[in-house]
Amino acid sequence: MIKKLHQMGIRSSHMYTAGVVSIGLSCGSWFLSKNTEASGLDRADRWGIFIGEWAPTFIALGVALRMEETHRDLDEPEMGMYEQSEGMRSRSHAGV
Predict the structure, then answer these.
(1) What's the predicted TM-score (pTM) here?
(2) CA distances from 86 to 7, 74, 76 (A)
């Protein structure tokens, strides 16, 4: 699932942002529910907890995606100038 999310273009920073937004929405929904609904504090607490439970999931997905990103970086090492010129020279002389 993590590889598929990475292939779709979702990055760890997106998930970290979603986690922080979830925390903000949790506080906001608790405050709005507490002040605007007649149901009282119990219902406001339920809304806040419901939305607040998303944050750890988003953060965990962000960590998993960060591991996927760093794993991919290790699999594809960058070639330095010397290695690139050696590779080009060997390719150009391969047909001779």
Answers:
(1) 0.65
(2) 32, 22, 18
